[in-house]
Design goal:
Number of helices: 3
Largest sheet: 4 strands, mixed
Protein name: Endonuclease/exonuclease/phosphatase domain-containing protein
Pfam families: Exo_endo_phos_2
Number of domains: 1
GO molecular function, one term: catalytic activity
CATH architecture: 4-Layer Sandwich
Strand order of the largest sheet: 1-2-6-3
Domain Endonuclease/exonuclease/phosphatase: 7-122
């Protein structure tokens, strides 16, 4: 591994204002602006990031935080809900990355196993070893697409290209 990422886990109680927790995350990212970061959290915030449900005030704060820091939401939009109780199901648990190439995220899935919680287990596999480039063709359609999904897919597509240094010898005039 050529770097050590910062890994943050966070719990935001549904009974407490989320603003203070977002402020703490902002402070950590301000202090480590260029560091690779993984945030895994139970935000207890409803947003249309991963479902068709309405966004609440807490969800707006989380979405603003994600946008401000150019964060990638790793959640699979087709996964089963991360929270399930007799009253309802929801996707209130998020896996977020910053300054991490999407190719390093091998897997993020919600496990459908019995737990002693209303929350399901979430498996996130990260591999920082160099991986070979795989040729793939990706068609991105803006029609009926959520902007964060588009941003994630576009970033994945861009990351399939190798890095190159632009010099006066190899640039076109």
């Amino acid at each position: 591994m050529d770097y050590e990422p910062i890994i943050i886990t966070i719990y935001c109680s549904p009974f407490v204002d989320i603003t203070e927790k977002i402020h703490i995350l902002n402070t950590v990212l301000n202090s480590n602006d260029n560091d690779r970061t993984i945030i895994i959290g139970d935000f207890n915030a409803k947003s249309n990031v991963r479902s068709l449900k309405e966004t609440d005030r807490r969800g707006e704060e989380v979405l603003n935080f994600i946008s401000r820091w150019n964060i990638t939401v790793v959640n699979d939009p087709n996964s089963i809900p991360t929270y399930s109780c007799t009253k309802h199901e929801s996707w209130i648990d998020l896996t977020l990355t910053r300054n991490i190439d999407d190719r390093h995220i091998r897997e993020r899935k919600v496990l459908d196993q019995e737990t002693l919680s209303d929350h399901r287990l979430i498996l996130t596999e990260v591999n920082f070893q160099k991986t070979g480039r795989t040729e793939r063709r990706k068609i991105l359609k803006l029609q009926d697409m959520k902007i964060l999904d588009f941003k994630r897919d576009l970033k994945k597509f861009i990351n399939t290209f190798p890095e190159a240094d632009i010099t006066s010898e190899n640039r076109e005039n």
